[in-house]
Amino acid sequence: MTKLDTVDVLDGGQAIAIRWVDGHCARFHAVWLRDNAFDEATRSPANGQRLITIQDIPEATRIEEVSIIDDALQLRFAPDGKRSLHPGDWLRAHAYDVSPDQRRGHPPPEVKTWDGMFDPVDVTAGLAAITERPDALRNWLDHVRRYGFARLTGGPVQSGALLEVVNTFGYVRETNYGKWFEVRTEINPSNLAFTSLGLQAHTDNPYRDPVPTLQVLYCLENAAEGGDSQVVDGFRAAERLLQVDPEGFALLSTYPARFAYEVADRVRLQARKPMIELDGRGQLAAIRFNNRSTAPITDVPYDDMAAYYDAYRRFAEIIDDPAMAVTFKLEPGESFIVDNTRILHGRTGYEGEAGSRWLQGCYADKDGLLSTLAVLEQQAERTFG
Ligand code: OGA
Ligand code: ZN
């Protein structure tokens, strides 16, 4: 860890500026530091939860005294004389002094975007390995966090085995499609996924709010001709759109699109969300893209609609660019997981007798996966320092 170098008081104590020995600088506000004090009166030593409310912090809070002791900042606040100690590495990890322009249109820092050159072998593990070995599971979940996509091989060729995948990190998110759903050719399909048609790369269930954040597709049979799986990094596609067509990017990320899915007398789901969703700082938050379930878009003003459609087309062309897609064929017992807020998945059409291609799919929650990963990382840190 880089050590603290200097600290200066700014604006009459309303903030401080810290410099680390490697030259990195960051400013912090007095009220923020006070709110994030670690003492027993501020946070419960038993569960780490905050005991105070924002109103318990005096409005005129400022820093009266600050010094560096053992690579921690020792602070005294006015007007109440409160003291706190903040470790230097904790401050470095929680710095927020970043210009918003640096984030605009970019993915979160823990994410690494990819294109068709990405080798799925690099994110493939054995189901037995991740079930039995915490280090293998940690590594595999880290792939999901970073690349939004990972594969598994060597699972049982057995209906419902996809639950074993989800059980390694969390829980299934049940929907109108059930705990899991069958992806195979049906006579009266309730979804075009349940036919032999090719599917343009898409995110699932954009008509649902909140959208399922993870999807698992598990192969039980794949003797059909065709039916290859494709995945595309939607964040990389958005980055490319921002580069070639910033106005188009602005349209798709500002105006909500509309998505809907209906099954007579059973389901009437709809959501209004942008195709490219940004968070409050302008960083990429989620992609929604699904030709099958896009409803009439009514939230774009008349004067912007033609340009909106141009941008939609450009975005689709980037997504369909073969240089963006990673293609592979699932074998029975193999599966993959995608971050459904980022990665689009699709398949080529297939031909074959009924039953020649059979996948099962289900949804799960990314926050739970990230929580399991964080716990595994903490345990590994404790073990290996
Ligand atoms: C789905 C889907 C792809 C496939 O069921 O959501 O996109 O490979 N299926 O059948
Ligand atoms: Zn799908």
Summary, kept brief:
The chain is α+β, with helices and mostly antiparallel strands. The chain contains nine helices and 23 strands.
Report the span from N to C terminus: 13 Å
Could you say which overall geometry the principal axes of the C-alpha atoms support? globular
Number of strands: 23
Oligomer: single chain
Helical amount:
10-25%
Largest sheet: 7 strands, mixed
Q: How many DSSP helices?
A: 9
The whole-number mean of residue pLDDT values reads 96
Structural class given helices, strands, pairing?
A: alpha+beta
Topology diagram in text:
Elements: E1 4-10, E2 15-20, E3 25-29, H1 30-35, E4 62-69, E5 72-78, E6 83-87, H2 88-93, E7 124-126, H3 127-132, H4 134-147, E8 149-153, H5 162-167, E9 172-173, E10 181-183, E11 199-202, E12 214-222, E13 225-226, E14 229-233, H6 234-244, H7 246-254, E15 257-263, E16 267-273, E17 276-278, E18 284-287, H8 302-320, E19 325-328, E20 335-339, E21 343-347, E22 350-351, E23 357-364, H9 366-384
Parallel strand pairs: 7-8
Antiparallel strand pairs: 1-2, 2-3, 4-5, 5-6, 8-20, 9-23, 10-23, 11-21, 12-20, 12-23, 13-22, 14-19, 14-21, 15-16, 17-18
Helix pairs in contact: 4-9, 6-7, 6-8, 7-8
The structure holds N-oxalylglycine (OGA) and zinc ion.
N-oxalylglycine binds at residues 183, 193, 199, 204, 217, 229, 345, 347, 359, 361.
